[in-house]
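Key result, reporting period 2: structure in, sequence out.
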């Protein structure tokens, strides 16, 4: 036996919210209905779902417009994250999507950390382009500057005076007169 249901949420391998599908009675009765993932496909429920679908489409259109505006703001500037790093430019830890989200929040742009895609952990000082997926149809790149606590963006080269202070001999000191 099978029954026709209306999905109230996205269910993998079945469909999206608002879809009318046919499933086995036991699957609907024992899994989908108790979890709130579906409801019976009655005439009243079909009318209710149709009105909800119209509201959802209007919401999606406004979310798309908001995502496009936010993408325009993100591309216009770069963002700086300060992190503790060693002399070689390697971070003590890494910069995560939560850190990037917090840096964007300081600039007045709210982006959920789950929408920020960091392919590889950022573990060195430098400049990085990070993908941000604001909406299924809107994605952009954000330029992130990872700088050390002292403000440097790359490992500093040792100077001769630093070597002399450490007690190391330089080629000038070895020359005899």
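The corresponding designed sequence is given below.
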């Amino acid at each position: 036996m099978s029954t026709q249901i209306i999905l109230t949420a996205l269910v993998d391998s079945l469909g999206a919210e608002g879809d009318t599908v046919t499933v086995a009675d036991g699957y609907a009765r024992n899994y989908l209905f108790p979890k709130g993932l579906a409801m019976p496909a009655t005439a009243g429920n079909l009318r209710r779902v149709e009105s909800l679908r119209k509201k959802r489409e209007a919401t999606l259109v406004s979310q798309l417009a908001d995502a496009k505006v936010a993408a325009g703001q993100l591309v216009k500037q770069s963002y700086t994250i300060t992190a503790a790093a060693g002399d070689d430019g390697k971070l003590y830890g890494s910069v995560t999507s939560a850190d990037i989200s917090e840096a964007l929040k300081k600039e007045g742009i709210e982006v959920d950390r789950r929408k920020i895609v960091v392919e590889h952990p950022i573990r060195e000082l430098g400049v990085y382009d990070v993908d941000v997926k604001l909406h299924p149809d809107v994605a952009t790149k954000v330029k992130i500057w990872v700088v050390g606590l002292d403000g440097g963006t790359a490992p500093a080269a040792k100077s001769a005076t630093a070597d002399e202070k450490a007690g190391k001999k330089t080629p000038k000191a070895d020359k005899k007169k």
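Strands lie at 2-7, 20-24, 38-40, 78-83, 90-95, 116-117, 122-124, 126-135, 138-148. The radius of gyration is 28 Å. This case is discussed further under Risks and Mitigation.
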